[in-house]
Amino acid sequence: MSNKNAERVLEALLFTSSEPLPLKDLEKNLPDNVDVESVIEKLQKHYETRGVNLKRVGNSIVLRTAKDLDHLFLTKKVTRRNISRAARETLAIIAYHQPVTKLEIEEIRGVSVGSGTIDLLMDLEWIKFGKRKSSPGRPITFQITDKFLDYFDLSSTKDLPGVKELKDLGLSVKKLNQK
Amino acid sequence: MSNKNAERVLEALLFTSSEPLPLKDLEKNLPDNVDVESVIEKLQKHYETRGVNLKRVGNSIVLRTAKDLDHLFLTKKVTRRNISRAARETLAIIAYHQPVTKLEIEEIRGVSVGSGTIDLLMDLEWIKFGKRKSSPGRPITFQITDKFLDYFDLSSTKDLPGVKELKDLGLSVKKLNQK
Amino acid sequence: MDNSKGHDDLTKSELHVCLDGFEGPLDLLLSLAKSQKVDLKKLQLGILADQFLNYLRDQRYKFKLESAGDCLVMAAWLTLLKSQLIIPEDELEKDDSEKINELITLRLQRLVKIREKATWLFDRPQFLQNFFPSYIYRDKKVIKEHFLIVPLGDILKSYLAIVDKKNYTVPIDANEEYLFLDKAISFIDQKVKGSNVSVSFSNLVKEVHALSGINAKRCAATIFCGILEYTKIGEIQIKQSNIFASLELTRIRNVYKV
User: Which one of A91, B75, C190, C222 has the fewest beta carbons within 10 angstroms of its own beta carbon?
Assistant: First the structure.
C-alpha cells in the first residue's frame, strides 16, 4: 500500500468514528510495512488548517471540528452537566497523580470518597482501573482514559500544567513521619 | 469571510451531519458575498482523491467514505450498544470464575446461556475453551484469553477488582440494565 | 453522551460531610486559613487552631460518626500545636510540633493546588461545547470488530449485579463489627513505621481494641494479616525470642525502593 493510500484508509476510519480510535487498532488496518506514526503526522499536518482537526488523545486518534467554529453548532451543544465539586476534585487528583488509589485520593481531599463519585467518573468513561499498587493490601488504582483527554481537549497528561509541582508536594503525608 | 474559511465552515458542517445537508442550509452559514457553489466545487476537488469524498445528492451535499474502501467497514453487527447484557454477564462470570463450565455459568446467572452469546464472545476471541472438568460428563470449560486482557488493558485477571472492592467504590448497578 | 442522570444527586446526598457546608476538616481548615489572608506557609496556626476548635464545638451535634474521627484527629493536632506555641520547652516535642505544622501546611497547599487544577480543567474547551464529533453516516455498515468499545466498568458491574441478585452472602455478619484490613494497615503504618523502636504486637492489639471497641480477637487477626503484608514487602520485621514470647515489630530501615 502506498503511503497515500494508507492516509486514505485512516481518513475513512477516522471520519466515520465519533470516538477516539486506538493507534494499535488503526495500525491493524494498514500493511506491516507502513509506519502508522508517519501517516498520522502527515494527516495531522494536512488537517491543521482545515475545518476538522486531527487530534492525538493519549494512545488514540480522533477527528474533531476546529474550536473556532463552535458558533456553527449552537443547536448541537449539550447542556453542561453539573458535576459536583467532589467529582471535579477527584478527577483532577486522578489526572495529576495517576495511578492513584482511593485512599490516596481521600488523603488529599481530607474526606472519604462518597459512593457515586467514582461511579459517575467511570460511567463518563473519564477514569478506568489501573494496576494494583504493590503497597500492602495491593489496592486497585485509577487512571484517566483517552476519552477524558479528548473531552478536555488535551493530547496527553503532559498538557496538564504544573504536574511536577504537584508531584513535589507529594502524595503521601507519611513521608514526613519518616524523616 | 475568505474562501478558505468558507471551505472550513462547510467542512465542519458536513463532518457533523449524518444526513445530506441541503445547499440552502449550507448557504445560510456563509456570508452573502460568498458563492456557495464555488466553495463546494473546491471542496469536492479537495476530497476527490482522499479517503472520504464529497457527494451531491440532489440539492444536498454529503461526505461519504470512498467506494474503494468499503472493505474497511464490515457488516458485522457488534457495536457497543449491541453487546447484550447476557454477553456482559457471561463474560464477567468467565473472568471471575475461570475455568468454568456452561452449566456453572447458567447456575450463577440463573438463566440458560444462549449459544449466540458464547459464539459472540468466541468470535471476539475474548474467551476460549479450557480443559475438561473431571466432573461427570467431563464438561468443557471456558477461559478468558490474552486478547481479553489486552483489550481491557489488564496484566492478569488478578487486576480485576473483587466484589468487595467494587462495592466499596460505590459502583451502582442500577443504571446498567437500562443500557 | 450519557445515560447517567441522577448521579449528581447521588454524589451530593452522600457526601461525607461532617461539618455544615464543608467537605471535611481539611476543607474547613482551608477556608479558615484563607480568612487570615496570608501565605499558607506563614499561617498563624495558633489562631487557626482556636477557630477550628470553636467551630467544632458549635457543630458537635451535627457530626456524622464516620467522619467525626477525621475532625477529631485534626483537632488533636491543632491542640497540640497550640500548646507547643505556649510552652515550647521540650526539644523532642518541639520537633513533633514542627512536623505537624509542616504536615498541615503541606496538606493545605496540596488541597489548594488540586482545586486550582480542577477549576483549570473544567474551564477548558470541552467536547460537545467547543468541538464536535463526526456524525458521518456509514451506510448501515458497522465498524470492524476490533473497534468495538465496551467499557470494563460495564463488565464488572454486570458481575456485581449477578452477585447482588443471587444474594451471595459475603461471609461477614453485618451486626458484628470488624476491623478491616485497610484500617489495620494504616494503624500499623502510624505506629510501627513511624517509630524508631520496636513495638509489641499485643500492645498494638490492645490499643486498637480500646480505640475501636471491636472484639480483641478480631483485631488481633486483622492486625496480624496487616503485619504480614508489610513483612511481605520487607518493611517490617517480626521477632520472637522463644515460643509464646511476645512478638516484637520493628521497621526495617534503608528500604531502597526501585
Answer: B75
DSSP assigned state of C247 = P
Residue by residue, DSSP assigns A65-129 as: E-GGGGGGGGGGPPPPP---HHHHHHHHHHHHH-SEEHHHHHHHHTSPPPTTHHHHHHHTTSEEE
Q: Is residue B175 part of a domain?
A: no
Cross-chain Cβ contact A169/C185 below 8 Å: no
B95 in the same domain as B67: no
User: For residue B128, how many C-alpha atoms fall within 13 Å in the half-sphere facing its CB?
Assistant: 9
Q: Would you call C42 an interface residue with chain A, using a CB distance cutoff of 8 Å?
A: no
Looking at the fold, whether A111 and A53 belong to one and the same domain comes out as no
Per the DSSP assignment, residues forming a β-bridge with A63 are A54
The CA distance from A42 to the nearest CA of chain C, in Å, is 20
Mutate to test the interface with A, among B5, B17, B49, B52 (most CBs of A within 10 A): B52
Q: What is the pLDDT of residue B137?
A: 81
C126 and A152 within 8 Å at the Cβ level: the answer is: yes
> Which of B159, C151, B165, C160 lies closest to A123 in space, CA to CA?
C151
Query: Among B16, B49, B72, which residue terminates a domain?
Result: B72
| Domain identity same for A68 and A89 | no
Which member of C134, C149, C161 has the closest CB to residue B15? C134
Q: What confidence tens digit (pLDDT) does each residue in A117-171 have?
A: 999 999 898 999 988 888 888 889 999 999 999 999 999 999 999 988 888 887 6
Cβ pair C162:B91 closer than 8 A: no
A31 and A96 share one domain: no
In angstroms, the separation between the Cα of residue B134 and the nearest Cα of chain C is 26
What's the predicted TM-score (pTM) here? 0.72
CA gap B146, C227 in Å, rounded: 34
Chains that contact C by 3+ CB pairs under 8 Å? Answer: A, B
Arithmetic mean of pLDDT, B90-96: 91
Q: Containing domain of residue A127, as a range?
A: 85-168
CATH number at residue A89: 1.10.10.10
Share of chain B above pLDDT 90, in %: 35
Phi and psi dihedrals of B61, rounded to 5?
Answer: -125, 145
Tell me if C3 and B175 make a contact (CB, 8 A cut-off). yes
Tally of domains within chain B: 2
Nearest CA distance, A3 vs chain C (angstrom)? 22
- B58 in the same domain as B95: no
